[in-house]
TrEMBL record:
Name of the protein in its database record: Alpha-hydroxy-acid oxidizing protein
Named cofactor requirement(s): FMN
Organism the protein comes from: Candidatus Limivivens intestinipullorum
Signal peptide: none
Organismal lineage: Bacteria, Bacillati, Bacillota, Clostridia, Lachnospirales
Superkingdom to which the source organism belongs: Bacteria
GO MF: oxidoreductase activity
Pfam family, one: FMN_dh
Residue span, FMN-dependent dehydrogenase domain: 66-123
Length: 125
């Protein structure tokens, strides 16, 4: 890493660009975005991840962190409707339901703890 701050890296990059100003017949651009029925006035973007190591040299690759975050959202994605309907209380209720479903599956299969769950309890119908 170069040891430069994010601000310096960004400034160097923007200084390397040359933009031509065109004011005649121009219109104010709409940078808004509609996502899942909600309007955002600026584009939804990820932060620059390429130089996270500048701040913490032991930080794993930023793109890996981003991918892990996306995976985590995917894992919990089915809880989003519960978040929207009733917030924390609804999510806690759904997690309790899932826990009861798991307890039932464990009882039906004779599994006493999660470490005993393996492919032997699964059968195709």
């Amino acid at each position: 890493m170069s040891g430069k701050s994010t601000k310096e890296i960004t400034r160097d990059y923007f200084d390397s660009l040359m933009l031509e100003m065109r004011l005649i017949d121009s219109a104010v651009p709409d940078t808004g975005l509609k996502l899942y029925g909600q309007r955002f006035e600026t584009p939804v973007m990820t932060a620059a991840l390429s130089h996270l190591g500048t701040f913490n040299p032991e930080m794993p690759d930023g793109m890996i962190q981003y991918a892990l975050g996306a995976t985590a959202v995917s894992v919990g994605g089915h809880l989003i409707p519960y978040i929207r309907k009733g917030g924390e209380e609804a999510v806690a209720g759904r997690i309790r339901e899932m826990t009861e479903e798991l307890r039932g599956a464990m009882a039906y299969t004779g599994v006493k703890n999660l470490s005993e769950f393996d492919a032997s309890v699964l059968h195709r119908v």
